[in-house]
Amino acid sequence: MITDTLYTEALARIPGPGWLADGRRLALGRFLARGLPNTRDEDWRYTSLEPLERQDLRLPDAGADTVLAIEDYPGALMAFADNRLIWQDTRLPDRMLGALEDAEAPVRHSLGTLTQDSALAQLNLALWREGVCLRVPAVYRPRLPIFLRFAAVQDGVMLHPRVLVVMEPHADAILVEHFCADGGVPHWQNAVAEIFLKPGARLTHIRLIEGGEGATHTHLVGVRQERDSQYRGLTLGLGGRLARQDIQAMLAEEGAEARLDGLFVADGRRHLDHHLRIDHAASHTTSRATWRGMAGGRGRGIFDGRVLVRHGTLGADARQDSRNLLLSPHAEIDAKPQLEIYSDEVRCGHGATVGSLDEAALFYLASRGIDPATARGMLLLGFANQVMGLADDAGLRDWLQPRLEAALPKQGEVWT
Amino acid sequence: MLTIHDLHVSIAGKPILQGIDLAVKSGEIHAIMGPNGSGKSTLAQVLAGRWGYEVTRGEARFLDQDLLAMAPEERARAGLFLAFQYPMEIPGVANVQLLRTALNGLRRTRGQEELDAFDFLEYVKDKLALLEMDDALLYRAVNEGFSGGEKKRNEILQMAVLQPRLALLDETDSGLDIDALRVVAHGVNALKDADQAIVLVTHYQRLLDHILPDFVHVLAGGRIVCSGGRDLALELEEKGYGWLADEEDRAELHP
Lengths: 416, 255
Description:
The complex is a heterodimer. Chain A is α/β, with parallel strands linked by helices. The longest helix of chain A is centred in the N-terminal third of the chain and has 17 residues, at about 20-35. The model of chain A is unreliable at about 410-415 (pLDDT under 50). Chain A has a domain at about 5-255. In chain A, α1 (about 5-10) packs antiparallel against α2 (about 20-35), α2 (about 20-35) packs antiparallel against α5 and α6 crosses α7 (about 370-385). Chain A has helices at about 5-10, 20-35, 50-55, 105-110, 120-125, 360-365, 370-385, 390-395, 395-405, and strands at about 75-80, 85-90, 95-100, 130-135, 145-150, 155-160, 160-165, 170-180, 185-195, 200-210, 215-225, 230-235, 240-250, 255-265, 270-280, 285-295, 300-310, 315-325, 330-340, 345-355. The two termini of chain A are about 40 Å apart. Chain A is globular and about 65 Å long. In chain B, strands 6-9-10-3-11-12 form a six-stranded mixed beta sheet, sandwiched between helices. A four-stranded antiparallel beta sheet of chain B has the order 2-1-4-5, covered by helices on one side. Chain B has a two-stranded antiparallel ribbon with strand order 7-8. Chain B has helices at about 40-50, 70-80, 95-110, 115-130, 135-140, 150-160, 180-190, 230-240, 240-255; strands spanning about 1-10, 15-25, 30-35, 55-60, 65, 80-85, 90-95, 140, 165-170, 195-200, 215-220, 225-230. In chain B, α7 links the parallel β9 and β10 (about 195-200). Chain B is α/β, with parallel strands linked by helices. The interface of A and B includes residues 364, 370, 379, 381 and 384 of A.
């Protein structure tokens, strides 16, 4: 059972630094006033966090020394096990990639400014321990992709990873966040990333969500884009028991472009909910949301995308495309792209489909001598590949491919 | 190689094929012609093992095996190939991946070693050249965004890679301009050897100017109503299919 006392005690146990303390107390107050979101909130009507309240969750023990083996990452890695930093690549200077507690003054003031509306983000702001600040200097383009790995190790831990990214003008970087767990330990990771893109900056942001049967994952990404900046996000929901992804992109100045790609595999009893909010607040801004979902077993997948084009803007260009495969009679997918347009001069469109594996395509492959299991695997992978372009662009296809293949619904569970 | 005896096939209870007899030997080229709706494509699909067709009577044997009892992938591995009238588009699956997976599946069945990516490219290179296809088509998604002609060439490329014993070409000439038709026909002719047989399913005789059949069969109302040599195709070209209606009426009256 999670109680208010649990949160307050957790806050009391968090040591300095002083510049954060007031903010943490205020945030906790705001969270406690609202509580965990429930299905009475329109935005949460598909996903209940009530099972979480029945779990016996706690902050990690300070003294635990189990360390989950770290696999190879093709880039510069900062790795956390529960809320402890266990590895930091030394190839990048601290001033660029470091602990959020140590963030410099101008960056500090940005903390929490993009995600004020969310109760979960307030909870994160109050209780985060594993914090990362990435600040890429103007015009700089790090050669290596930057990997952040957040792993849950102890049974029943509640973790609140927090990432703050500032891309100075014309900086360009690749950031990968990897969320995972030691086997099937029950835990809750409630992550927040705030991303500021200055004029002409570009960030390629890949998020890989794994974690076993016991994983609950809630994650809010807030992005604020200035003139001619590009945010390119790829969300891969490949694991966990329940995951809720929110992406809020604010296209604040002209020429800003957001590309949001995503894939989810809701297999077994997995419940994966994705909410995109794209705000075209300036003229001549562009957004593309392309999502592919598949659900097998008793899985449930949700795509809820909302594009807002504000009054007084010109030439917004927005597209949403959500295509989904149902692989079992007990699986369910809801696809809900929405446009809210308050401007006359726009180019906007959306499409959503939910279907099953194409019988004619299966026969076509069979007629080439390809056995049914391989044919199904090829079609599922082909379907997933439609949104893997950013993985190719980032040079991370080889790293992601085996994880993707392992996560595809197994043949016995496939239903056409 | 292929023997079909008294084959009856229905779709959703509706009879389509009503007693097909056909024998195809190694090295032969057969053309099956007929008007739309005569059952030509159904015959090709049933032989390839398409789901959803009900064989109500008769049998088909391929290389001394009971063809109709085999799964579609088993038929392909035994050496049967169907070039589709409407090739499927498969987004996200690269052409080269389909070709290599299919070929290696076949090679495993034959007890041959699988080809790695490098050896496969060597293997496929001259086949692409034969069909005047650009290498880039290997890396595009299967048939996605291909022109009509590119799709048909791609079917023949698959045939060239898989080297079947029996190739069924279903309306391979439809949607091809005359240059593409020549390339495809040249490809088929170049691939053909004495061990192979080809069955062309076609509405028009123009493909038969380029791929010369040994036998021509006319399918109407689910039956082969007459068979002959190449001359029959020319006669059909001249007379059209209209006269068949009379033949069919007679068949109905005197079965």
